Amino acid sequence: MTLPQDAKQLFDEMIPAALSKFPDRAKEVGAVYAFKITGDGGGEWTVDLVSSPPTCIAGDSGKAQCSIEVAHDDFKQMLANPAMGMQLFFQGKLRVNGDPMLATKLQQFFQLASDN
User: Fold this and answer.
1) Do 112 and 26 form a contact (C-beta atoms < 8 A)?
2) Are the CB atoms for 74 and 89 separated by under 8 Å?
3) Residue 111, C-beta contacts closer than 8 angstroms, at least 6 positions apart
4) Is 58 exposed, middle or buried (0-12, 13-18, 19+ CB in 10 A)?
5) What is the pLDDT of residues 50-91, one digit of tens each?
6) d(Cα 31, Cα 33) in Å, to the nearest integer?
7) Domains of the chain, start order
């Protein structure tokens, strides 16, 4: 798996490339996510895996079914070790709003970017 340098590289380069390469696999996840990554290298993005074609844009569209908020350092840990997500959640460092079941599909989604 190729790990991004930071959230900006992941959401501005790797995910859009994966969405254009694997639109059908992205649509299997079938949800709209908002990511708010705080700290250096972070930002806000909306990942729409429902639209045709799926998109990843800067900013919060306000249409997310599931919102993820996490500090950039914790986010990088989670990318390196997806099992950290649950641990960060229980430590209160990863906040999920909306449908929590959609958060469980994130590992499948991030796998797309690493397959690219």
Assistant:
1) yes
2) no
3) none
4) exposed
5) 999 999 999 999 999 999 999 999 998 888 887 888 899 999
6) 6
7) 7-108 (3.30.1050.10)
Q: Which two tokens stand for residue 10?
A: 């992941």
Dihedral angle at the C-alpha atoms of 19, 12, 8, 35, nearest 10 degrees? -60
* Predicted local distance difference test score (pLDDT) of residue 81: 84
pTM of the model: 0.91
Contacts of 27 (CB under 8 A, 6+ apart): 49, 50, 52, 54
Q: How many CB atoms lie within 10 A of CB 14?
A: 20
**Strand 55-58 versus strand 94-98 pairing type:** unpaired
Q: Do residues 30 and 101 make contact, with C-beta atoms less than 8 angstroms apart?
A: no
Structure tokens at 5: 């340098």
Are the CB atoms for 3 and 110 separated by under 8 Å? no
**9: nearest Cα among 66, 63, 74, 79:** 79
Closest CA to 47 of 58, 37, 72: 58
